[in-house]
Amino acid sequence: MTTKFISIQDAMKKARLSQAQSGSSKLGQAKGEVAVRGWVYRERGSNVLKFIVLRDSTNIIQCVLDKKDFEKQWSEIDKVQVEASVEIEGEIKEEKRAPSGYEIHAKKFTLVGESNEFPINKDLNEELLGDRRHLWLRSRKMSSILKIRSTVTGALHEYFRSKGFYEFQSPVLVPGGAEDGPTMFEVKYFNKKMFLTQTWQLYAEAAIYALEKIYCIAPSFRAEQSKTSRHLTEYWHTEMEVAWADLDELMNYAEEMVKHVLSRVLEKNKPELEILERDWKKLEPSLKKKFPRVTYDEVLKELKSKHKMSVPWGKDLRTIEEEKFMDSYDTPVFCTMYPKEIMAFYKPRDKKNPKVARCFDMLGPESMGELIGGSERDTDLEELKKSLKAKGEKLEDYQYYFDVHSYGAVPHGGFGLGTERLVRWICGLETIKDAIAFPRTMTRYYP
């Protein structure tokens, strides 16, 4: 008969259920026969007992192997090292002193895959851990982050579909940009020059005339000369575009979306947040409060009055200025109406104040900086061409975009979320590089 292996988490549930059914609350009464498998997380022992802390994707559990039960295998068991893969069958019992509160007294042991001098230890610096990222993913820290990331992306899909959005994909290879040309990765496309996409937006604007409400979660690429804790050259971009929407509606969607993601993470991932030593109570204000909405002008006034920082009008906000401004807030804040001249070509001028664009950035608390950027979209063809020329772009590369707004143009808008930035904030990470399995930066392209 084939052994039925269960996860470590299910093994502990089985022990708890056994205790409940027995009606006992005494220590050690939670027990049962289980078969588990996984990788050696830690190991120690003597010439009599071997203690193996086993891990799988669900949890860790201490396993005790007594030499008298494994006389023929003891030489093999005694040599087992960290990250060896093993199968263990035995009796599970409650043990408060064990790492997860339970312990398996092994009756059967099978070595599946050997491991010799696993090259990850607590003394490695960030650069060396980066070189061994393919192995560092096995750490409880990284596996916890990846579980939370999975919840985040699942919740994003869930939110948009619940609001009647269609998922829509666009090309990764594009003839021109939507942001600044110098931040684009050039790709040889047969005998032509193409670029890796910075955003789906220009194609999304075409699709809203068919589907009206669309979203996508896909990679985007920015060749930014940046080595900060907030930038990746390849990241997962959560974007939405919707017909008939104005700026206030876009911000409503963005706030609802973030709240939905937070609620799902707090519902499903508190154990992972605890492993990361993340104080999840810092996330609760963002569920309970409405996100403030302030203009660029109001930000400048507050920086000057509260922080003695004088920012010339027309200058974009730097990281230090965003962080100082956000010191007073425990939720994200929408900053709106940035100067038009420093914005992307597709962001329209405000009719009441043509010096500013109808756009927003959602700034994150706890020094997280911009999480989301969005705007209404300009449908004035002459204004679009003027803006593109001013940025040195070739108008022929955007003829399809002009066509889109030549036949039944409607008010519309959208936003883009840096998915890793949201994961970083939720997990309380020092660097965005830990918010993705294999980060790509100016200096990191391996493994």
Q: What does this 3D model show about the protein?
A:
The protein is α+β, with helices and mostly antiparallel strands and 447 residues long. The protein has two domains: 8-113, OB fold (Dihydrolipoamide Acetyltransferase, E2P); 129-435, BirA Bifunctional Protein, domain 2. Helix content is 32%, strand content 25%. The strands form three sheets. Strands 6-10-11-16-15-14-13-12 form an eight-stranded mixed beta sheet. A hairpin with a 4-residue loop joins β14 and β15 (369-376). α5 (140-162) packs across α7 and α5 crosses α14. The longest helix is centred in the middle third of the chain and has 23 residues, at 140-162. The radius of gyration is 27 Å and the shape is elongated. 34% of the residues are buried. The model has no long low-confidence stretch (mean pLDDT 95).
What key phrases describe this protein's structure?
BirA Bifunctional Protein, domain 2; OB fold (Dihydrolipoamide Acetyltransferase, E2P); 14 helices; 2 domains; alpha+beta; 8-stranded mixed β-sheet; 447 residues; 25% strand; 16 strands; 5-stranded mixed barrel
What is the structure about, briefly put?
The protein has 447 residues and is an alpha+beta fold. Helix content is 32%, strand content 25%.
SSE layout and pairing:
Blueprint: H1 8-22, E1 31-45, E2 49-55, E3 60-66, H2 74-78, E4 85-94, E5 102-113, H3 126-131, H4 133-136, H5 140-162, E6 166-167, E7 173-174, E8 186-189, E9 192-196, H6 201-211, E10 213-221, E11 234-243, H7 247-268, H8 270-275, H9 284-288, E12 293-295, H10 296-307, H11 319-326, E13 333-336, E14 359-364, E15 369-376, H12 381-390, H13 399-404, E16 412-418, H14 419-427
Parallel strand pairs: 3-5, 6-10, 12-13
Antiparallel strand pairs: 1-2, 1-4, 2-3, 4-5, 7-9, 8-9, 10-11, 11-16, 13-14, 14-15, 15-16
